[in-house]
Design a protein that fits this description.
Blueprint lengths: L3 H14 L4 H6 E9 L7 E4 L1 H13 L6 E9 L3 E12 L2 E14 L2 E9 L2 H8 L15
Parallel strand pairs: 1-6
Antiparallel strand pairs: 1-2, 3-4, 4-5, 5-6
Length: 143
């Protein structure tokens, strides 16, 4: 039997990929922390659901077309779930397309910690190098 959080994450992706980000918002605990490696998407550590969602929306708004995400695999246990995704971003005439492994740590039925690991971190850093997350502020999202 699949761990409930594997199913929960898979369903959140399904809803998200249909154009509705609400399932991801519900999946994240208010105190969730997202660790972004390198320089991509501003890099560093994002504290709280609002900061995570705002950064994701801000990055998407800076792209020439909506980012493409294809969920390739999801596996794990109740507390730790790993997703492997194929992502494509188009911005300023450039394209970044690669696989990313995301590790999601759950407490109960909400994600409290996220770690992303990109296939080619140097290419990811180069793609996002001139991007400033504050250039695309979308307002304050709920915590």
């Amino acid at each position: 039997m699949l761990a409930e959080n594997i199913i929960r994450l898979s369903r959140a992706y399904e809803v998200f990929l249909s154009g509705d980000p609400s399932a991801f918002a519900e999946l994240l605990a208010p105190e969730a922390v997202y660790y972004l490696p390198g320089l991509h998407l501003g890099g560093g550590t994002l504290q709280g659901r609002g900061a995570i969602l705002e950064r994701a929306v801000s990055a998407a708004l800076s792209c020439d077309a909506p980012p493409e995400v294809r969920l390739m695999n999801v596996s794990g246990t109740e507390d730790f779930v790993a997703s492997v995704e194929r992502v494509a971003f188009r911005r300023a005439g450039r394209v970044l397309e690669q696989r990313v492994c995301v590790v999601w740590r759950f407490r109960g039925n909400q994600c409290v910690e996220i770690w992303s690991h990109f296939e080619d971190q140097a290419a990811c850093d180069s793609f996002w190098n001139d991007w400033n997350p504050t250039d695309f502020q979308i307002g304050t999202l709920p915590p």
